[in-house]
Amino acid sequence: MAQNMQDRIRETAYLMWEQDGRQEGREMDYWLAAEQSVVGGKTKTTRKKAVAAVSSAPRKRASSKKIS
Length: 68
Prior knowledge:
Distance between the termini: 45 Å
Structural class: mainly alpha
């Protein structure tokens, strides 16, 4: 992947992360949504939909496994 493309994906993922309230632990979700948006040549409207999709995705929960 060209460096310029990677930079655009990184910037888009960061903006999505900020718009979504800077949620931790969802880096891959934001990266994949940004990648789809940038590589697919999506519009800003679609980027907003991608942010909404990432925001509504189930969040990872901490393991309830007991450590002895």
